Fold these 2 entries.
Entry 1:
Amino acid sequence: MHAHKLLDGRTLRLGELSRSELDFLATLRRMTTEGVSFFEIERFAIGPGSPALRGRSTVNASVVESALYLAARDIATRAGIEQKLILAPEHERERRSIPADGSLISVTQAANLVGMTRQAVHQAINSKKLIIHHYGNVILVERASAEAFKESRKSGATSRAQSAGPSRAPLRLAAKG
């Protein structure tokens, strides 16, 4: 029998799901192992048109209580935890210590702010170019640090262009006439 254990400890029985619904859950699980962004996984799992929403754009009580929706949401949540974007249940007590003033942003938000990929942000973190804070399993980037890094990248690109010297003007061929 198919079953799925939720983060809260409940076990869902998936035996009554159709083949296409089981395939949908298998696709979600595969997305989590292939490094797909949490936001994309979440949209596919429970976003508008999702099989978990029965193809609709809205939810109601029967949808959010269904085994398919609960399993899809749980798989997406686990991906967010794995990608250090969602606080794991065992670290929930740390939520109160996270500043709510906007001074800390997620790795994904930092990537969007700086104009680079999440992987590149992680590389910048590893090379100490961004200031981060750990709250449980979550990594948050100081917004001011990300803004400064963005500016340093801009000025670095300008410096490199200037040190390369003046660009050569393209040759123009005169038409014979």
Entry 2:
Amino acid sequence: MDIAQKNKLPRILRCSQIMGRNETDELSAAQIFYLCMHCADIFFLKADICQLGMDQRKVNVLAREYYDDIKRKMKPIILSHHMLPGLLQGQEKMSKSDPNSAIFMEDEEAEVNVKIKKAFCSPGEVEGNPCIAYV
């Protein structure tokens, strides 16, 4: 709640792209609190280094700004990486809702091998080929 209290609504709304929304979209109260809770995860986990995709960047910046608000010296280090595409044809990024389109940290080696063998890989095509992104 402290993150919500220390920020104005327009600042929180600028983070809405992490949910695939725009600042101008009408959001429910739950969606607004989700943004604050996503930011709070960094503090709850006591993370010194936070690694998230580029699509999470605005929430990471909000977390670092919050450290200024609470006058803490050690801000979390934010490592932002590009998004890996989904393994299936036409997927811009991996999806948690389709386990076959994503490789998860907890996947066993055999499971990863099966997913890679089933991945979309058009011969001779580099653009839009998820297998190339992993090489």
